[in-house]
Amino acid sequence: MDFRTEYIPKAAAVRLDPRKPAVLLGSCFADNVGSLMRRSLWNAAVNPCGTLFNPASVSRAVAMALDDARIPEPWRGTDGIWRSWDFPAAFAASSESECVRKCAEAAASLRASLASADVLTVSFGTSVVYSLAGSPERTVANCHKQPSGTFLRRRMDISETVALWVRTASALRETNPGLKLVLTVSPVRHVREGFEENSLSKAALVLACDEICRLTENCVYFPAFEILNDDLRDYRFYASDLVHPSHVASEYVFGKFCDMFIDPDGMLALRAGRKLSERAAHRPLVADSAAARRFDEETRRLISEWQESNPLMLTPSEI
Fold first, then answer.
1. What is the mean pLDDT of the chain?
2. pLDDT score recorded for residue 297
């Protein structure tokens, strides 16, 4: 007797090679998957511009990366701290110039990563966007705990998201013609918006992704949202906040991702990378013992061999 409906992925038309660089943008689910990729020494640049949740903000980060002129002007809060509406709190600074520098460096880092990447994976978290009340066309990536009256709230139309990301994909291909695009909807629940609004928001994103993939070459949808909600389908696969996936769930979803996109040779590289990173993280019981010294020497030799055979992948010290 079966007690669950397991998602069995089919090999995608777009194939990914973990021996080539990747970029992940979007919600905190991108952070989770990206960390698993890096633990396997996949050279994945993860949210250089910070965690972003809605399609408009992720698209704007790409636009800033591709066009230096788009770096935003920061604003000064009543606490004297300078912040940007396009970047999370980590990019705040005590001076305007320092805030601009941090934002510009992040955009430059993303630009460099996109230029050499084999694939861009985007995780959309919500279709709800906030814009400045005085400038409704100006969406923000982070409200920075400002008063609610500062913003207008709305849900992006499906057609709006589709049009925006078809243009974004086109701009990306001008910079990197061979770039592959994987879209996914984050399974993280935005319960603060309410159960009904969360469902509508996620549904709008799923429909938009389907249309974007239909209209965009080398663009594929990965069903992370569906795997957690229809395959795992149990609160034991969530963290204690009952909103974010647990580590076990993230590992499971990443396994399905690999099954869908990576061929056997690529999987061998990932497994070898994971094994090497775990070996490098090992700490012996007695650090100055002869056995520990032999272990360290062998680890350094294996890392050297790894660098020679996988020049585009990470080494354990870069995780």
1. 95
2. 96
207 with 282, same domain?
A: no
The amino acid at residue 149 is G
Same structural domain, 178 and 289: no
Last residue of a domain, one of 262, 278, 293: 262
Residue 241 belongs to what domain range? 22-262
- Could you please report the per-residue DSSP string of 21-64? -EEEEESHHHHHHHHHHHHTT--EEE-TT----SHHHHHHHHHH
Contacts of 314 (CB under 8 A, 6+ apart): 38, 41, 42, 43, 273
Which two tokens mark 283?
């700490």
Span 241-299, pLDDT tens digits = 999 999 999 999 999 999 999 999 999 999 999 999 999 999 988 888 999 999 999 99
> Is residue 7 a part of any domain in this protein?
no
CA angle 122, 126, 132 (to 5 degrees): 110
Q: What is the pLDDT of residues 71-117, one digit of tens each?
A: 788 999 999 999 999 999 999 999 999 999 999 999 999 999 999 99
Q: Are residues 130 and 141 in the same domain?
A: yes
Q: What is the CATH number of the domain that holds 180?
A: 3.40.50.1110
Place of tokens 């993303």: 110
Provide the domain count of the chain: 2
pLDDT at 95: 96
Yes or no: say if 169 and 181 are a contact pair by the CB < 8 Å rule: yes
- Dist CA 90 CA 140 (whole Å): 15
Does the reported pTM lie above 0.70? yes
Of 124, 133, 185, give the one whose Cα is nearest residue 154. 133
Residue 317 inside a domain? The answer is yes
Radius of gyration from C-alpha coordinates of the chain: 21
Q: Do 173 and 310 sit in the same domain of this protein?
A: no
In a domain, 13, yes or no: no
**Six-digit token pair at 311?**
């020049």
Angle separating helix axes 247-261 and 28-39, nearest 10 degrees: 70
Of the chain, the percentage scoring pLDDT greater than 90 comes to 90
